[in-house]
Amino acid sequence: MAPTSAPGCWSGASEAQSTPSEDPPPSSVLTSTPAPVKLPGVRRIVAPIALVGLLLLIWTPGAHAFIYWADTQNQTIGRAENDGSGVNDSFIHTGQLPYGVAVDASHIYWANQNSNSIGRANINGTGADNSFITGITSPSGVAVNGSSVYWSTLGGKIGHADLNGSNKNLNFITGPVESCGLALDSGHVYWVDIDTGSAYIGRAGLDGFNVQLSYVTIPGTSFPCGVAVNTANIFWADTGFFGGGTRIGRANTNTGGGADPSVIGDAATPCGVALDTSSHLYWANAGTNTIARANTDTTGVNESFVPTGGNGICGVAVDNLSSPPPSPTPASPTIRFGTLKRNQRQGVVTLPVTPSGPGTLTLTGKGIIKRQTQNSGGTSKLIVKAKGRLLRRLRRKGTARVTVKVTFTPLSGAPVSQSRKIVLREKQPS
């Protein structure tokens, strides 16, 4: 059955070499511009997107590298070898309107529009689980690295979970308006955003901090869905207002500048982009149901590199034959205390606490009320209030000393604790 909304774009990103490939262009290069394809039922550009993050497949003797895509109307994940052979559009049957794919060394991931979830299967296609991560409203893309799963949503929010699906955070990054796909590099998460007719590439740290909502401003009128990144460039796909888009855009990774919305101009409703470590750029053509490929310097364009045999393909991911740089070791979580603020009328102290990232803050101590709060970034104010014997002492003498402990449990990684001695004071009645 046809999906209720038309294919949008999805993208995948792997950490690729920045030096242009010197391989000769493929022999079957198409130079004609296909007729625009109107995608049925799509509202503006808000067709869903799915992206690939750092692709971590490790080469072993006899191993193969593959290209993956999402087939929205047949509701499958397709696969072919990275030379374009061995096409199998029904590699995984999802039945849940999949949008986009991501892969790591062990698993394949996809975003489910029907079930509002992230699906996952073993790398060989077995063990498909459409409910790997649930409760996501309109997921539009997925990306993975060595420790985490990230996803975008049509409502704009970027979500995050540990790689095993635990510690889900639906509000990991807020601020984007319509986040149409995302990608990762060794230090940042990137997403495509559309806001009242303007289009941007947003960026934040992998911990969700240092959000830059308009890191790249895409020139002119553009309806992009899908983003991929390497050390030199950010690439995006422009699906078009009602499909029919033909452009792949590019900007500088390190500065966000030099945005060119049309470094490749003969795509056929491109829905997602991906990079490999061999200086190749890939995109999914929803208009012709083909996977296209070019060198990362945009030469050697082949719009029919993989004829998928699918229907409404959107999203592309690529294995890596060689290992990309390992994911950086995350910095140890930290806690920073601010200046105390005393309320002597109530006999309490406000302790400002700034953790190094999103997570849970827990305040404990002998004789005080336990506090726990979720911190999504910034400073939390924890109230230190006596109870029991300590409270009676405070009211009797007007002062009481206590050692409090604050424990910060980050979204991923081990918790860290820090203690501080505090003097509580309560104004005595006259």
Describe the fold and architecture.
The chain is an all-beta fold. It folds into two domains: about 65-320, TolB, C-terminal domain (Neuraminidase, 6 Propeller); about 335-425, Immunoglobulin-like (Sandwich). The protein has one helix and 32 strands. The protein has one helix at about 390-395, and strands at about 65-70, 75-80, 90-95, 100-105, 105-110, 115-120, 130-135, 140-145, 150-155, 160, 170-175, 180-185, 190-195, 200-205, 210-215, 225-230, 235-240, 245-250, 260-265, 270-275, 280-285, 290-295, 300-305, 315-320, 335, 340-345, 350-355, 360-365, 370-375, 380-385, 400-410, 415-425. The strands form eight sheets. It has a four-stranded antiparallel β-sheet, with no helix packed on it. A hairpin with a 6-residue loop joins strand 28 (about 360-365) and strand 29 (about 370-375). Residues about 1-65 and about 320-330 have low confidence and may be disordered.
CATH structural fold name of the largest domain: Neuraminidase
Number of helices: 1
Q: Please give the radius of gyration in angstroms.
A: 25 Å
> How much β-strand is present in the residues?
over 45%
Topology, please?
Elements: E1 66-71, E2 76-81, E3 88-93, E4 98-103, E5 107-112, E6 117-122, E7 129-133, E8 139-144, E9 148-153, E10 158-162, E11 169-173, E12 179-184, E13 188-195, E14 198-205, E15 212-217, E16 224-229, E17 233-238, E18 247-252, E19 260-264, E20 270-275, E21 280-285, E22 290-295, E23 302-307, E24 313-318, E25 335-337, E26 341-343, E27 348-355, E28 359-364, E29 371-375, E30 380-384, H1 388-397, E31 399-410, E32 416-425
